[in-house]
Amino acid sequence: MIYDLIVLGGGPAGYLAAERAGHAGLNTLLIEKRSLGGVCLNEGCVPSKTLLHSAKIYDYALYSKKYGITCESVSFDHQAVIARKNKVIKTLVTGIQMQLKKNKVTVVEGYGKILGKTREGYEIGVNDKTYIGSRLLIATGSAPVIPPIPGVKEGLEKGTILTNREILDIQKVPESLVVIGGGVIGLEMASYFNSVGSKVTVIEMLDHIAGNTDRDISNILMKNYERKGIVFQLHSKVTEIRKGEVVYEKDGQKISVQAEKVLLSIGRKPVIEGIGLENIGIEVQRGRIRVDERCKTNIPEVYAAGDVNGRSMLAHTAYREAEVCINNILGKKDIMRYHAIPAVIYTNPEVASVGETEETAKQKGIDFQVVNLTMKYSGRYVAENEDGDGICKLLLDKKYKKLIGVHMIGNPVSEIIFGAALMLETELKIDDIKELVFPHPTVSEIIREGIFNF
Ligand code: NAI
Fold first, then answer.
1. How far apart are the CA of 444 and the centre of ligand 1, in A?
2. Is the CB of residue 4 less than 8 Å from the CB of residue 27?
C-alpha cells in the first residue's frame, strides 16, 4: 500500500498533522518511537504545568493568611503530585489515540528512518518493515543540548544530573537543586522545586534570566523569586560538575555550590540525526531542517514542522505549522507567520508576551511608543494578587498606529495573551482596539487601560 502521507514523529506537530490529514481523507501513517504527544505532553509542557499547579495551590495554602484564611498542617506530597501528573498524561495521550482513530490514521510504534525514494514514493523503515508514502512530513522534535562540561556525562549516567525528562519524574524532592540555564525550562522547574522546599540556585551565563523576555519583566520575575529564596548567579559559567557540587566561574573567580541534583536546561536542539535525512538529500542549515514559509523542505513533497525546523521551538507554533503543511498538501494556500506567536513562562507570577520588545523594535528601526502600566490598574488583579508587582507594557508603531508588542507579568496573563496576539495578527488599528469591550472585572482590562494611553 502507498500512503498519501507518512508523518515521522507523534508530538504536537506530528499528531495534529496526522489528525488533520486523516480528517481530510488522506490515507495517513503516523510513526512514533515512544509515546504519542511527544515531549510536550509526556515530558514537557503538560507535566510541568501539572506540577506547577500543585505548587501554586500549596503556595496559596501557605500564604493564605493574606487572603483572610488560616490553613493548618499544610503539607505537600510530591509523590502524589507525580502520580497525578502521570494520570493527566494518560488521559491526554488516550485522547490523542482516540482522535487519530476517529480520523482513520494508522499509528505504528517504533523508530522510523527514511531509507530512500523510489518511483512509488518515500520509503520509511520501521521495525524491519518498509512503508511507502507519496508525501512525507518530518516532525521529529528536539532534544536537550548536552554541553561538553567535565562531569556532565557521568552525572547523567548516575542520575545526579537531570534533563526535563528525568526531573519531571523524580520521586523525592532534593534538598538542593542547581539549575544550569535560566531560560524557560530552568525557571519553571526552579519555581516548582522552590515552592516545595528545595534550596534552588540558578546559574545563568547571561546577565539576565528568561532569554529574550522584556528586560523590565525579567527583572521583576527575578526579584519575585529572590524574595522566595532562589539564588541567581548571573554572568556565570559552569566549568565542572563533581559529586554533589557544581563549579562555576564568575568575575574571574571559581566558586562552587552544593547540589543534591542538577538540572541541565541550557536549550534544545532539533533531532536531525539518525533519521536518514541524507538518504533523500534533505537540506540542513545550522542544525535544523531548512524550510520555506509553507514548511516545505528542499525535496518535493517533503515537509518539516515543529522543533525540527528550529523556527520557533514552541508547541503552539508546531500546531500551526502542522496545519500549514496539511493545507498546502491539500492545495490550499497557507503560509506561516511568526510575528504574532505568543510566548508564556508558567512561573508564579506568569509571564506572557507577543511581538516586538523595545530591544528588537529598536534594532529594526521602528518608530515606536511605549506604555508601561502597573497591573494594579486592574481591579481583578488587585483583588486576587495581594502584594502583586506585575506590569503590562505595550508597544505602538507610531507610523502605522498599530500594536507591535505586548509584555505582561502577573497572574493569569497566560490566559490573556492570545487576545493581544489576535490584535497583532489581524493588525488592528489602535482606534479599533479602543472600541473593543473587555469583560469587567478581568485582568485583561489592563490592555484596554494601556491602549487609552496612546
Ligand atoms: P532556553 O533557550 O529557554 O534557555 C537556556 C538558557 O541557558 C539561556 O538563558 C542561556 O543563556 C543559558 N545557558 C546556555 N548555556 C549555558 C551554560 N553553559 N551555563 C549557564 N547558562 C547557560 O532553553 P530551555 O530552558 O532549555 O528550554 C528549551 C526549549 O523548550 C525552548 O526552546 C523553549 O521554547 C521550550 N520550552 C517552552 C516552554 C514554554 O513555552 N513555557 C516551557 C519549557 C520549554
1. 28
2. yes
The Cα 444–Cα 362 span in angstroms is: 27
pLDDT in tens, 284-326: 999 999 999 999 999 999 999 999 999 999 999 999 999 999 9
User: Which of 266, 413, 418 to probe ligand 1 with, by most ligand atoms within 8 A of CB?
Assistant: 266
Q: How far is CA 99 from the centre of its chain?
A: 23
Ligand 1 atom 26: residue of nearest CA: 267
Q: How far is the CA of 386 from the centre of ligand 1 (A)?
A: 30
Cα of 264 from ligand 1 centre, angstroms: 9
Whole-prediction pTM value?
Answer: 0.97
CA distance 287 to 140: 13
DSSP string, 390-410: -EEEEEEETTTTEEEEEEEES
CA pair distance 219, 217, nearest whole angstrom: 5
State the closest ligand 1 atom to the C-alpha of 248, by its place in the atom list counted from 1.
19
346 lines ligand 1 (CB under 6 A): yes
Which amino acid residue places its CA nearest to atom 14 of ligand 1? 266
- Residue 316 annotated as catalytic: no
Residues with Cβ within 8 Å of 378's Cβ and at least 6 positions away in sequence, in order, are: 441, 442, 443, 445, 446, 449
For residue 243, pLDDT beyond 90: no
In the numeric block, which cell numbers belong to residue 347? 512561573
Ligand 1 atom at shortest distance from the alpha carbon of 307: 32
**Bond preceding residue 412 cis, omega within 30 of 0:** yes
Distance of CA 241 to the CA centre of its chain: 27
Cα separation, 338 vs 317, whole angstroms:
8
Sorted by where each starts, the structural domains of the chain and their CATH numbers stand as 2-143+269-329 (3.50.50.60), 152-266 (3.50.50.60), 343-451 (3.30.390.30)
pLDDT at 215: 98
